[in-house]
Amino acid sequence: AQSVTQLDSHVSVSEGTPVLLRCNYSSSYSPSLFWYVQHPNKGLQLLLKYTSAATLVKGINGFEAEFKKSETSFHLTKPSAHMSDAAEYFCVVSPLLTGGGNKLTFGTGTQLKVEL
Amino acid sequence: ETGVTQTPRHLVMGMTNKKSLKCEQHLGHNAMYWYKQSAKKPLELMFVYSLEERVENNSVPSRFSPECPNSSHLFLHLHTLQPEDSALYLCASSQAAPPLHFGNGTRLTVT
């Protein structure tokens, strides 16, 4: 069994300040973990993925996430927010070794607002 | 530029209409998916096709009927829908394992 919890449904930051979007997971198996972003009226775009290599994963647009097994967390960060980062972000978990595309569990999403 | 193209982008239909959603992937993937995205709810997996065979159907009502004629194309045929079926319908594709690559979706409104 697996689940994912995004701890904040809404996050608001000022442009140029750091972004932290929190995600905790549970899994009976070693997990693969992903972050996706969805801009209004768009599909989901893959930001980054963790698949048991380096625990600090770098993604597109300056985002990164750190896999912490002891804390069962995979938080998404960015040093400096840009207006174009305003979107909804989804944390996703999948079994690493047996996970086909039909075994993904999506979080409920975090809406990021970036203010001037 | 997405490698997964969905048409139409918007669709308004009455409850007695029949319509189809189309999805095409240009990524050489061998699995395709339909998801439903409703406000305030997690994404719901509806159908999965792998190598053109349906491998999963998550108890979706029969008013939704998928079709996968080849590994690049996926359809969702709609008939006698209900207002609660109004949502964003997302198509995705992948190799055997994640990650999935999503299209921009079809915004469906049932009147």
Describe, in short, the structure shown.
Chain A has 116 residues and is mainly β.
Topology:
The complex is a heterodimer of chains A (116) and B (111).
Chain A: E1 2-6, E2 10-14, E3 19-21, E4 23-27, E5 31-38, E6 44-50, E7 56-58, E8 64-68, E9 73-78, E10 87-95, E11 105-106, E12 110-115
Parallel strand pairs in A: 2-12
Antiparallel strand pairs in A: 1-4, 3-9, 5-6, 5-10, 7-8, 8-9, 10-11, 10-12
Chain B: E1 4-7, E2 10-13, E3 18-25, E4 31-37, E5 44-50, E6 53-57, E7 64-70, E8 73-79, E9 87-94, E10 101-102, E11 106-110
Parallel strand pairs in B: 2-11
Antiparallel strand pairs in B: 1-3, 3-8, 4-5, 4-9, 5-6, 7-8, 9-10, 9-11
Mean pLDDT of chain A: 93
Globular, elongated, flat, extended or rod-shaped: what is the shape of chain A? globular
Helix/sheet category of chain A: mainly beta
Spell out the helices and strands of chain A N to C.
Answer: EEEEEEEEEEEE
Shape of chain B: globular
Number of strands of chain A: 12
Encode the helix/strand succession of chain B as letters. EEEEEEEEEEE
> In percent, how much strand structure appears in the residues of chain B?
over 45%
% residues in beta strands of chain A: over 45%
What are the low-pLDDT stretches of chain B, counting only 5+ consecutive residues below 50?
none
Number of strands of chain B: 11
Multimeric organization: heterodimer
Q: Main β-sheet of chain A: number of strands, strand sense, barrel status?
A: 6 strands, mixed
Look at the helices and sheets of chain B and give the structural class. mainly beta
- Segments of chain A where pLDDT lies below 50 for 5+ residues? none
